[in-house]
Hints:
By secondary structure, the protein is α/β, with parallel strands linked by helices. 34% of the residues lie in helices and 12% in strands. The chain has a nine-stranded mixed sheet, with helices on one face. Strands 10-11 form a two-stranded antiparallel ribbon. Strand 1, helix 3 and strand 2 form a beta-alpha-beta unit. Helix 3 packs parallel to helix 4 and helix 4 runs parallel beside helix 5. The longest helix has 17 residues. The structure holds iron/sulfur cluster (2 copies). One iron/sulfur cluster binds next to loops. Keywords: 4Fe-4S, Iron, Iron-sulfur, Metal-binding, Oxidoreductase, PQQ biosynthesis, S-adenosyl-L-methionine. InterPro entries: 4Fe4S-binding_SPASM_dom (IPR023885), Aldolase_TIM (IPR013785), Elp3/MiaA/NifB-like_rSAM (IPR006638), MoaA_NifB_PqqE_Fe-S-bd_CS (IPR000385), PQQ_synth_PqqE_bac (IPR011843), PqqE-like (IPR017200), Radical_SAM_PqqE_MftC-like (IPR050377), rSAM (IPR007197).
Amino acid sequence: MSDVLGNPAIPPDASDSLAVLEKQRSTAETFGIPLAVLLEVTHRCPLQCPYCSNPVELDRAGKELTTEEWKKVLTELAEIGVLQVHFSGGEPTARKDLVELIKHASDAGLYTNLITSAVLLTRDRLSELADAGLCHVQVSFQGTEDIAADRVAGYRGAHHKKIEVAKWTRELDLPLTVNAVMHRQNLHQLADIIQMAIDLDADRLEVANVQYYGWALKNRAALMPTVAQLDETTRIVEEARERLKGTLAIDYVVPDYYALRPKKCMGGWGRQFFNISPAGKVLPCHAAESITGLDFESVRSNHSIAWIWQNSDAFNRYRGTGWMKEPCKTCEFREIDFGGCRCQAFALTGDAANTDPACALSPLHETIFKQAEREAEGETNRFLYRNFAGGTLEPDPGESGKHGA
Ligand code: SF4
Ligand code: SF4
């Protein structure tokens, strides 16, 4: 991808970059528009995962873009060169118009992926989605055992339903990705999760360790794994990758608290990724609204999506390396990891321009590493469930065995 800001062909004060592009017959590649975009079509979700990547301040249904507004977004995305859209949430199937939106995206030439918790789907509706042009399904799992997995989801019967939907997906000849979010309370099931993905005939398995912002940061003490657990996880993933070459592709996202260098979050702020929130905000990452003081433009504004991507303050604030302070500013890795995660830097230091404390060169690294180690000892296992009420603390097992939505 070319450097958007460094492209002299695009005037810095262009009022509408899309128009400029059209005039210049430029391509999405030279402009740098991401090829895949995440659409969070709603924050509504019947599940209550304590690690949910949605912001703690969830968008209510009344703020969501309408069917026509989402259709306009999809048309615009296709026009500016986006090739793939991920329908996510919240739970995207909570939107009654999902079939219509998938059909619109498909007609516009977009490859469509559905990222779903699966619990609201029926076989008929999945079949309708397939007929509308849905290309791929990604089902998230909380574990492999009904009771334990349903407890994490905060929804009784969720695991059983997910298995059903995964089977329907393959029966309808749609490619399937199993998405497993891992943490201290389910890492012991990893080998079984890999086997479950094989049994479900998945093409791909995403083993994603929890990243700690939003709801996950609130639940960090109940989710943080031990160093020994992580070493074992890495060993299992590496062994399975070798053994299952050609059968199951395994993506592995490591937790960065125990790393020496931070992840290249989102491929670098405003470089390869944007997502659109239920209310239409165009965001450099799905957690970006956790950074206060940044003003995110909306698709409801007078600006095109291409203009927002190229010119808006929120995207330009942490693009490239010019915004960096020490130690990132003069670090040899600054164009490799772009200083790590801005949301994590903000959450842990109060300033998104600081070095991500996941980096060993951050003055805070030692402190957060020690805190992670302390929390991993497991003083509390109770979850704060994600919901519109700001969270509900899991009942004390001593008081009640009940859980679920
Ligand atoms: S992480 Fe869980 S609660 Fe959050 S949107 Fe996904 S399924 Fe719903
Ligand atoms: S100091 Fe900054 S650029 Fe250097 S490794 Fe750490 S986060 Fe990356």
